[in-house]
Write a structure and sequence with these properties.
The protein is about 25% helix and about 25% strand. It is an alpha/beta fold and about 325 residues long. The chain is globular. The chain starts with a strand and ends with a strand.
């Protein structure tokens, strides 16, 4: 099969790789669409020790089961793989299990390929009317869905009465804003420095979009819920500045570093700061259902490119030259 392989930091090769093989509880999926995630970019930069080169990256995928159980079925893939006997899994929190792996780690090569091997239990069926391009968005949107759910549980007021701010208009940030809309949030602001991405976000929903530092940026102590989908020093500082007393900051970004938080303010104003990671299997299925029902908008914020041109896509993302919130590759 053809695959896009990360061979070294900042190096990608489109080359032949061995075909994966199905077993009793593992299927082979013919990949029809696979998104580029921020974690793929971290691995590409050599910043993810869990994904050493050479490795096939990619975990946001949809396609058709080519061999093994459920052959012929159209599916999207939940890429989170855990030990089913782990206590955290048994209590309903598999995304927190220390046994967790993702497709695109050494034991489970990723989906930037014509075929990918995946446990049959990780498949979620998609309806005939749903495109594979949209189905590949289930994984990143499920991350955002879980982040919003997590923040809403911690808020002292309903979303319908809350001023919400999302930092970053990449796929996780924009999807978080769309989920907030779906769940009835009263007011949604999106901060994004990239003018092209900001314009994409403005077209995608009823959002007040701004560039950091502009007059339209939410004022100090004005936000009930902040979702930091970037996780940089500047966004942690912005979240600390604009969060209201008793508010909630949900930190979804995975960039290196920890600076920027105003710990004194978090303490004196009883601000809740929480991390968020992945999603539960139920949230993944609920995300697929919401996508299939059209509850998350027209999804015109993605860009489709051939897998063979994946190296250029990574370079364009690095150069901040992409208007789309998500690039989806088609093998």
């Amino acid at each position: 099969m053809k695959a896009l392989v990360c061979t070294a930091p900042f190096k990608l090769a489109y080359r032949d790789e061995p075909d994966p093989v199905a077993t009793n509880d593992v299927v082979v999926v013919r990949v029809e669409a696979v998104g580029i995630c921020g974690s793929d970019m971290h691995a590409y930069h050599g910043q993810d020790s869990r994904r050493p080169a050479p490795l096939i990256l990619g975990h946001e995928a949809a396609g058709i089961v080519a061999s093994g159980p459920r052959a012929g079925e159209r599916v999207t893939i939940n890429p989170l793989i855990v030990d089913p006997d782990c206590p955290l899994v048994l209590r309903g929190a598999p995304h927190l299990s220390p046994t967790r792996q993702l497709i695109s780690m050494p034991t489970w090569p990723g989906a930037f390929a014509q075929f990918v091997r995946v446990p049959v239990s990780n498949l979620v069926a998609i309806p005939d009317h749903m495109s594979s391009m949209h189905a590949a968005l289930a994984e990143p949107i499920a991350v955002s869905y879980h982040a919003v759910n997590h923040g809403a549980r911690l808020l002292a007021r309903p979303l319908s009465a809350s001023r919400c701010v999302v930092l970053g208009a990449g796929a996780i940030g924009l999807a978080a804003a769309l989920v907030l809309t779906m769940q009835g949030a009263n007011e949604i602001h999106i901060g994004e420095p990239n003018a092209q991405r900001r314009a994409t976000a403005e077209r995608s929903g009823p959002f007040a979009c701004y560039a950091p530092g502009e007059a339209r940026e939410p004022a100090e102590n004005s936000a009930d819920l902040v979702i930091d989908a970037v996780g940089a020093v500047a966004t942690r500082a912005a979240a600390s500045r604009m969060i209201a007393p008793g508010g909630v900051i949900v930190h979804a970004g995975l960039l290196p570093g920890h600076e920027g938080l105003d710990i004194r303010k978090l303490t004196l104003q009883e601000v809740i700061f929480t991390g968020t990671y992945c999603y539960t299997p139920a949230e993944f299925r609920e995300t697929v259902a919401a996508l299939a029902a059209g509850r998350l908008g027209d999804l015109s914020w993605l860009e489709e490119r051939p897998l063979a041109e994946g190296a250029r896509a990574f370079a364009d993302i690095d150069a901040n030259a992409v208007a789309a919130a998500k690039i989806v590759l088609r093998p």
